[in-house]
Design brief:
The structure is a single chain. The chain is mainly beta. It contains one helix and six strands. The chain has a five-stranded mixed barrel with strand order 1-3-4-6-5. A hairpin with a 5-residue loop joins strand 3 and strand 4. The longest helix has 10 residues. The chain is extended, with a radius of gyration of 21 Å. The chain starts with a strand and ends in a 28-residue tail after the last strand.
């Protein structure tokens, strides 16, 4: 068993999914800065991961693309068939229960109601001429 701890940035906005059996999960990737090459270009190390249940919900609720987080989980080799019918392998981290730490915490704002008028302001029902 390979247990791995990674602190990095989320590769894309989290998207919560539900399996056929009703389990909540999300798949994403995390990347970390690995230095610079000989020409001065930044190098990043990317890792795919999957989180289930409360961990997936926590990431989806509180993180965002490029937001930093730490995950701890088991790294396994996954085999799959690509769209061309070729057998491929890749490494994937399965996040362990209670092993997600959101560093750049951001609770997603609630959308205001369409007829919302902030406190202290009056609603304007007429057209504004500019």
């Amino acid at each position: 068993m390979n247990i791995i701890t990674i602190t990095g940035q989320l590769g894309r906005d989290p998207e919560l999914k539900t399996s056929a059996k009703g389990t909540t999960y999300m798949q994403n990737s995390i990347y970390e800065f690995a230095g610079k090459d000989d020409e001065g270009n930044s190098i990043y190390t990317w890792r795919d991961f999957v989180a289930y249940g409360k961990e997936a919900e926590k990431i989806a609720r509180n993180s965002y693309r490029r937001g930093r987080l730490t995950i701890i989980g088991e790294e396994k080799e996954k085999t799959y068939t690509d769209k061309n019918g070729q057998q491929r392998t890749r490494m994937e981290i399965t996040v362990a229960p209670k092993m997600v730490n959101i560093i750049d915490f951001q609770e997603k704002p609630k959308e205001p109601e369409p007829d919302y008028t902030p406190q202290g302001f009056a609603a304007i029902d007429e057209d504004i001429p500019f």
